[in-house]
Each structure stands twice: as structure tokens, then as C-alpha cells.
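Kindly review this protein for my students:
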Amino acid sequence: MKRYWHKKPLLIRGAIPAFALSAQQQERLDSPISFDQLVQFANQDEVESRLIQSKPWRFEQGPFQKKSIPKVDKPDWTLLLQGMEAHHPAAAKILSWFRFTPDARLDDLMISVAGIGGGVGPHFDSYDVFLIQMSGRRQWRISKQKDLSLNPNLPLKILQKFQCEQEWVLEPGDMLYLPPHIAHDGVALDPGCQTWSVGFRSPSLRELLQEGLWRLAESLEDMPELERKFADPKQAATAAAEQLPEELIKQLHEQLGKLKLDRIDGFLPGITAYLSEPKQQAYFDGPKNPLNPNQFLKTLANKVLIPSPQTRILSLGRQVFCNGDNVSKGQKADVTSAWGTLSAAKRLQTKKLKNIGKTSLYEAYCAGWLIFEH
């Protein structure tokens, strides 16, 4: 992180040692998700998928019928499946390896499967990305070029003038890290080539402040003292009726001072809540026959409770936010502590909770945000 993160590219050969170890045993290790499985995922409404074909460049949005996706031995096509950590445990496992970066920055895992010659063209990303080779080989060419202008005549964001400065062929188990705005072009060299991309969130400061302000404005509803009507018993007669009254300005200034809007503390809860929101297409389905609170408590003593693959949990000190809600607000210390464990370890098994009742932890279970590990 100190030497490369946000600074310069890094190629790591054998980042997943299992591939090399299998080769030493004269066994072939392949991607944990087969090509046929990826085609099935591309047919599902809840999976964001895209099909890109070159010669000429074409772009289609899923879901796709099986017959719409080229055969694995056909050239010059790429199928992209976004947010796969929510749909397959292997993708979720690999995404969890990258928790050496803050959860607030980690976004999702995208799988690219392609025929020979498949790719999305030379482009750049505005966020950090780790490119993990999972099946077949892919040639990567990169450039630190300053000219990032795009070709206006193509349906994809492809660089108009790409000038390769370095290139490598990645074998299964290899990984390439690229900071933002590094131009890169990846081309599949084998049929069924799979590259798994770990992407990161990079919201603008404007976006974060707007979300923080919006949620701060919502929180004013919890302050009954602000229900007091504006009054100006000392208002004198005025010769400038069109001007905003000085007394109104004065009272608003006093209230803003009490709200401490110039301190970051007031913004951070709203910003944390925003960053903990699940993806727009996330869908949660609670248990068909939910346990009652007492049954939930007994099960929690013997089984591990984990977040749903689509759930996001973040902490701000001792406050915990799950899927946009402050789930620690108004909770007893043992429940808040349990949420803290879930946020940090992404798993919880405890006998310490007593008389849990309908707490935010139980409500999150009923909503499908938290599930018991099978």
C-alpha cells in the first residue's frame, strides 16, 4: 500500500499460489466458476451483465438467452458480469481477501470471460483495480499516457490514441494492480479466458458532502427545539421591506452555531450511512419461516450469523451502519457490541446476548440482511 497504492502499477506473479502448486502436482486448477455457470448467471435478471463484441465494436446489456452468447471457441467477444460476490461464494471469498483496504472503499468483483481476441478495448478507469487471472491467459498492455481522450465514434469508452509502454501475459494465478487513470488494454489469448476484477469505490467529495448534508437535514426532525416558530418582537419599522430581516438572519446564525455545521462530526454519520447502502439492484428476501426472538437467540449461540452477500456494514467509532441504517442507535450495549463484531469480522456467534427481543439485530435477520451460515 505504501509503495504502490494510488501511485504505480504492480504485477504479482503467482498471487494465488494454488495454481502453481497444482501445476507442480501435474494437475490443472481452473476457475471455481465454469463458463457454463457464467452463461447461466448472465440469464438472470438480478445479475448485471454486458456483452461486448469487436470487429466491429458492439455493446449489449443483459440478461441474455444462452443462444445470444457466442460459443467459447468463437473469437472476439467478452461477457462481463458485475457484482459476482453477491451471487457466488467463491467470488465473495476472493473479494474478502482485499480487506487490507477499508470496506468503505471496496466495491465489487466483476468477472470477464472471453473468446480468443476478446476484450473491451484500450481504456482507463477512474478507480483502483486488481486484475486476477483465473482461467486461460490474457495479454495486458498499459500506459501512463496523459492523453485520455475517447473515440467519439464507438459505443464504448475506448481511447482514441493508445500508446503501449509495458506489456505482460498473465497466467492463471497472476495479478495486476492498476491505479486510477492508467490506460490499459487486455486481450484474451485462450478460449474461455477468465479475468476477475476487484474494483473500488471513488465517490466525489461533492457527492459525499451532498449525502452528508441531506442526511443531516433529515436528522433535524429529531430536534424538537427547532419546532419553535420564528418570532421577532423587537422588529422595528423598516424602509427596506425587500431585504431579508436582520433578526431572522441572527436567529438562524445562532441555531447553525448550535448545530456545529462547521465540524465534520455532524456530517460523518450521514456519510457512513450513505457508504453502507447496498447496490441499487440488491434484493433481500427474509426467511420464509423466521425464528422468533428466543429461537434466534438460541440459534445464535450455536450457529454463525453472517451478512447476506449483498449487505454492507460499516462502522464509525462504536456506531454501526448496515444497509444505510444506523443499527446501533438506541440499542443496548450487548447488541451494539454484537454489531461491532459483525462489522469487523463479518461473522457473529455468541452466548452473551440476553433477552434479545425485537432488536435491530433480530430485525436485520428477519429482513434477510443477516443470515445463518449453512
About this structure: The chain has three domains: 10-200, 205-229+246-275, 293-372. The chain has a mean pLDDT of 93. The longest strand covers residues 106-114.
